[in-house]
Description:
- By secondary structure, the chain is of the alpha/beta class.
- Helices cover 36% and strands 15% of the residues.
- The chain has helices spanning 3-7, 11-20, 25-37, 96-103, 146-153, 170-176, 210-218, 254-257, 264-279, 295-310, 328-339, 342-355, 361-381, 407-411, 418-423, 451-465, 470-474, and strands at residues 44-47, 65-69, 107-112, 159-164, 179-182, 202-207, 223-224, 227-231, 249-253, 283-287, 387-391, 427-435, 438-445.
- The strands form two sheets. The protein has an eleven-stranded mixed β-sheet with strand order 1-3-2-4-6-5-12-13-11-9-10, with helices on both faces. The protein has a two-stranded antiparallel sheet with strand order 7-8.
- A hairpin with a 2-residue loop joins strand 7 and strand 8.
Amino acid sequence: MDVQEIIGLTAAQAIAAIERGDLDAVELFSAYRRRAEEDELGAFTWVAEHLPADMHADGPLRGVPLAVKDLFCTAGIPSQSGSKILEGYLPPYTATSVARLEHAGATIVGKTNQDEFAMGSSNENSAFGPVLNPWDRTRVPGGSSGGSAAAVAAGLAPWALGTDTGGSIRQPAALCGIVGLKPTYGTVSRYGMIAFASSLDQAGPLTRDVTDAALLYRHMVGTDPNDATAVGHPEEIRLPTAERLDGLRLGVPTELTSGEGLEPGVLAAFEATLETARGLGATIEECSLHSAPHALSAYYVIAPAEASSNLARFDGVRYGLRREADDLVSMYTGTRHDGFGAEVKRRILIGTYALSSGYYDAYYGRAQRVRTLIAREFASVFERCDLVVTPTSPGVAFELGAKTADPLAMYLNDSFTVPMSLAGIPAISIPCGLSEDLPVGFQLAGPAFSENRILDAAHALERAIGFDGSPARTRTGATS
Ligand code: GLN
């Protein structure tokens, strides 16, 4: 197989080719390693120099290369979560989710760029600089898993790991025209993920198609003695086969689909996809999530509150950067002043304020009550509907720099993804068409642990939509 043929394969197809004897795992790894090394998009923060000695090519994933978001700890491999404060940090151990995948035969080909500590929606808050969208290099890839999304879309990796706290898998997947699955909270271990907001953080796959998402996710789930919140999955994750949606009831929440700020081209692609779903036998019903308009406000209290606590550990003593000073407090403040970027500092300030005595009930307590309402409203919608569907993001990929001066404009990118995060439920984004030559994402969310249902529906839709992601692979300019 020549390189073009190799990079044209999804991960599942590459595995099948290896099993048939048409493709060699070492050849596959070398092809992607070279692509990652020639990355012109800023997608990678580290690329493997050679094939690892302990590659598990006999596992079910057959040695297929995997790109891993920088925030996963990988033993002996730089892991900075996109932050200068973790400069030079080499973790002594590997995150459970990554270790599971390696055990199943995935081979780390590189670490991917991201917004610092996963705070952002454009990948512009990274100590490594921005990532360019392979569909249009003047635009952002989305964030915070922007490097993972761009790498997969551009064919610099067959698939990638990301994390999603409020949309960081789904939104970049949407903006780059690929598939991104945010699993049910707790189905994948968080051990070894550099924490942002612990009650929301979830790892998940970014892939070229729904089958690859199921395949990668299936090898990530499980309990973990190192993470008490990791409960695994009650079902075996199946590779999706559905071609129809007969009898499936799709709920369209009015609060999330008629709001201002939704670009007309995105709405048009969303509505066309509803028609496609109807053609496959689904019924479409309006439903209501009354509190969804407050989700973003609640999220931007809860996530910074948890972040302010999680990030207290970066003090110059234990990890990465240290600014020497005459006394301890000056060492702490100098290190944190120089090590954290502006958005991270903003979140620490907001979070510390929201948790401070006298304000705790007014902000944090209230945000938690909104969270409970949202979870209850989803539960009541799921009594009548099998899945809830929305556009993934209100707009297509925007120009680099367009929203960096306006945090609120940036936060609004997550309006449609944050409600599911607060409720802890699974959701997938699949590409559903183009608006102004840029990809649009379609989000399907279901009750906790309904990944098999979501993957099946997404698979049937994906087949009917027939989205062509190849422009992103040819426009990158990556050689060979
Ligand atoms: N963009 C959102 C934020 O900045 C979500 C990020 C995420 O999911 N990690 O918090």
